Amino acid sequence: MTERRSAFRPCIDLHGGQVKQIVGGTLSDINPNNLKTNFVSQKPPAEFARLYKDNFLEGGHVIKLGPGNDEAAKEALAAWPGGLQIGGGITDKNATEWLNAGASKVIVTSYLFPDSKFSLAKLEAISSTVGKDKLVVDVSCRRKGEKWFVAVNKWQDLTEMEICQESLDLLSNYCSEFLVHAADVEGLCQGIDEALVTKLGEWCRIPVTYAGGAKDVSDLDLVDRLSHGRVDLTYGSSLDIFGGSLVKFDDLVESSNSARRHS
Q1: In the chain, N or C: fewer CB atoms in 10 Å?
Q2: Which residues 6+ apart lie within 8 Å of 8 measured at CB?
């Protein structure tokens, strides 16, 4: 049997109701003026959703960064029912509503970490509500020394949960996928966190998508090699559809589809 190959997973990041690409480490409730934005689209979210649908790019995600994004998110989901995951402010109380709005899966982070402390009870609650197969746990992180720790609340607050074999094994009992934004390199277009991608390939027993720093079409092959095909890759600010000059969307789709045909 041919081994699995890493694939391109698209994204729609929403901030203030618009599709944007931002530098992840600059999101702040305390100092909102520090926000660094790489791109603000004049196109509606639904247009990106249709583009992904037309190119058969399944497993992408819509992320609501802060308030004022619900209408825009529902627009995107309606353009491709069952084709996109949704994250940002998801709880056990509203998760079913988002699935009914057309999300393929719900992505949860901050809800699991009240006061930045992990709650197994909350994970059990939302997994029970929507079902393990409909739940993605976002373990987006920041590096601390040679380790990575989950960061919540738009990546502003570091938790005590280290990303390691033990924690990922625990979480994978309740979800069907992981999403990992490397917040320290998100939006910088200066390269992926190769050490993190390598470890995710070693540690993850379920599908995982990595986002942060991708700057060349060849990064998809790099992630494939480092993770042995176990980690998929999201591109953001480097893509031409998000105002970037480093990666052409059509080239990336062709590269990803070619890898898929050989897997």
Answers
A1: N
A2: 57, 220, 232, 233, 234, 235, 252, 253, 255, 256
